């Protein structure tokens, strides 16, 4: 491996607004990150809270193939020896494969935050590193907090702190842009200088994104000689986040030709990114570089026809390299070429220009009533199937009903009843949920599970409502967009109605029908291949 990826999603990332990870979440994320193939996973700060201590107690039970687990903490307190320091003892007791500690680099912080002399701070750094190295018998990494600010303010002192950590046995010196305001050229100059002064040291970079330059600063540091990249998946983290490792990894592998992950693992990047968004319970931006849903989405007619001839015309890399997929966006404006291009991906057997024209007609008509297929690949696929006679109806709805439960204890639970016939069996199911869509989704899936157990893999990721043609006043319609994940695939469906529940039902029904139709295609292909 040319570069070491050090993931801090579980520690620095969990300090991002809205991110709140349970021990179970952290263990699951550890598995995901190991599957991706990162070298190091920073699991938490054992001295800071019981949850992190529990994590370190449980994580040895996981069988990990690639990643080493790191415990994070700080240098010893000012006025106690290293062996009497409770936090350092917790770090030793965590028995992690690597211990990472941070210390102060910036003289301003030493004086005003720590309130100790500059000499005392140097002693705190070297004592702590030496103590942890001898007590654990394992590698110690040193995070130089505020390195770039300290380097600007008092270069000699910043260098002395690094020397202290290096001489005490730190195996990596990680240069941190803790406040995230650095510029790439400053990073380049400082890293080159450290490499010149400490030629034996192995350097890492840890930056935040406050200036929107975290990826640029990371790339600059790598070009200047850093061999370790610290960051978080999807750029979660304090304030504007840590560097987004998905972008940094893809750039290093594809643009610098530096290997960060085991052979073939870069294709796992998109899946891991989406799984992490779900586990941290945030919705990722669709235009996230490399792994976002829109990263390879083409809408403009000229772009679409050019990409069909040669994808390199409007794509900087092939989407498959990072496990993403090209998407052609269909709308009445984009016209026939986009529909043709989309069919080439979804249903390559459909080439008849008349069929294509009739599909476009359907799209135009539906969009007129408030539909939009741009983010609803699933609903578009069903529209095509219905038009060409390839749609298989998986169940028949008799009715659904929603009841709000306004009891003393529960004020937001909703009950949904769904009555359907599936494979000639009448099924009536009642389920609860937080809100009508959640309840309907539970009831529908439960009613279908006996016939289609594969729906266990399906879950709702996102739900959006928008009022369309609101100029009509009372007759305003709502458009509901739902995103689901089914196995490795994620897709959107859409429903429009004057009634929000009905619009949601249409989108939900589409989601289930789409998933089952796709699965039926796949099974047919496998059967044909086996015959
Ligand atoms: Zn940080």
Tally of strands: 16
Bin the strand percentage.
15-25%
Strand order of the largest sheet: 1-2-3-4-5-6-7-8
Average pLDDT, to the nearest integer?
Answer: 92
What structural class should be given to the helix and strand makeup? alpha/beta
Q: Based on Cα principal axes, name the global outline.
A: elongated
Taking all Cα atoms into account, the compactness measure Rg is 27 Å
Describe this entry's structure for a reader.
Helix content is 41%, strand content 20%. The protein has 531 residues and is of the alpha/beta class. It starts with a strand and ends with a helix. The protein is built from 17 helices and 16 strands. The longest helix is centred in the C-terminal third of the chain and has 31 residues, at 500-530. Strands 1-2-3-4-5-6-7-8 form an 8-stranded parallel barrel, surrounded by 9 helices. Strands 11-12-13 form a 3-stranded antiparallel sheet, with helices on one face. Strands 14-15-16 form a 3-stranded antiparallel sheet. Helix 5 packs parallel to helix 7, helix 12 packs across helix 13 (335-346) and helix 16 (436-448) packs parallel to helix 17. It has helices at 23-36, 50-58, 86-93, 107-114, 118-136, 147-153, 155-167, 184-197, 214-224, 245-254, 269-279, 301-309, 335-346, 353-368, 377-388, 436-448, 500-530, and strands at residues 4-7, 40-44, 68-74, 98-104, 140-145, 172-177, 203-207, 228-231, 297-298, 327-328, 396-404, 413-422, 425-434, 458-468, 477-486, 489-497. The structure holds zinc ion. Zinc ion binds next to loops.
């Amino acid at each position: 491996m040319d570069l070491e990826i050090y993931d801090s999603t579980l520690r620095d990332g969990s300090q991002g607004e809205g991110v709140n990870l349970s021990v179970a979440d952290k263990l699951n994320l550890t598995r995901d990150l190991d599957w991706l193939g990162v070298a190091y996973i920073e699991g938490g700060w054992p001295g800071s809270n019981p949850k992190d201590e529990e994590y370190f107690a449980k994580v040895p039970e996981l069988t990990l193939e690639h990643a080493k687990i790191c415990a994070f903490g700080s240098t010893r307190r000012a006025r106690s020896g290293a062996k009497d320091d409770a936090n350092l003892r917790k770090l030793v007791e965590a028995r992690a494969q690597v211990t990472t500690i941070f210390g102060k680099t910036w003289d301003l912080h030493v004086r005003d935050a720590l309130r100790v002399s500059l000499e005392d701070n140097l002693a705190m750094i070297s004592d702590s590193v030496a103590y942890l190295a001898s007590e654990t018998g394992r590698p110690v990494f040193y995070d130089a907090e505020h390195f770039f600010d300290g380097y600007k303010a008092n270069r000699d002192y910043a260098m002395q702190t690094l020397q202290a950590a290096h001489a005490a046995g730190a195996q990596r010196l990680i240069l941190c842009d803790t406040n995230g305001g650095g510029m790439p050229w400053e990073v380049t100059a400082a890293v080159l200088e450290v490499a010149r002064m400490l030629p034996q040291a192995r350097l890492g970079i840890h930056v935040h994104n406050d200036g929107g330059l975290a990826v640029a600063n990371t790339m600059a540091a790598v070009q200047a000689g850093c061999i370790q990249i610290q960051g978080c998946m999807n750029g979660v983290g304090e304030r504007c986040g840590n560097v987004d490792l998905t972008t940094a990894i893809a750039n290093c592998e594809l643009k610098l030709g530096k290997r960060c992950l085991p052979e073939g693992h870069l294709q796992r990047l998109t899946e891991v990114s989406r799984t992490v968004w779900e586990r941290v319970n945030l919705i990722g931006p669709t235009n996230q570089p490399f792994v976002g849903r829109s990263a390879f989405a083409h809408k403009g007619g000229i772009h679409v026809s050019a990409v069909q001839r040669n994808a390199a015309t409007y794509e900087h890399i092939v989407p498959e390299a990072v496990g993403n997929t090209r998407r052609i966006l269909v709308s009445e404006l984009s016209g026939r070429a986009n529909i043709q291009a989309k069919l080439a991906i979804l249903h390559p057997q459909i080439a008849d220009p008349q069929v294509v024209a009739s599909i476009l007609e359907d799209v135009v008509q539906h969009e007129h009533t408030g539909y939009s297929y741009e983010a609803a690949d699933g609903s578009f696929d069903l529209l095509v199937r219905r038009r060409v006679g390839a749609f298989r109806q998986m169940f028949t709805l008799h009715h659904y009903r929603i009841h709000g439960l306004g009891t003393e204890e529960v004020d937001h639970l909703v009950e949904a009843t769904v009555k359907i016939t599936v494979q000639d069996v009448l099924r009536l199911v009642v389920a609860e949920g937080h809100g009508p869509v959640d309840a309907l989704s539970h009831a529908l899936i439960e009613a279908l599970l006996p016939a289609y157990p594969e729906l266990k893999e399906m879950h709702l990721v996102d739900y959006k409502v928008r009022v369309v043609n609101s100029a009509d006043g009372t007759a305003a319609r709502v458009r509901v967009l739902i995103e689901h994940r089914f196995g490795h695939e994620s897709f959107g469906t859409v429903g429009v109605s004057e009634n929000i529940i009905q619009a949601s039902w249409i989108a939900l029904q589409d989601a289930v029908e789409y998933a089952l139709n796709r699965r039926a295609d796949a099974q047919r292909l496998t059967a044909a291949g086996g015959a």
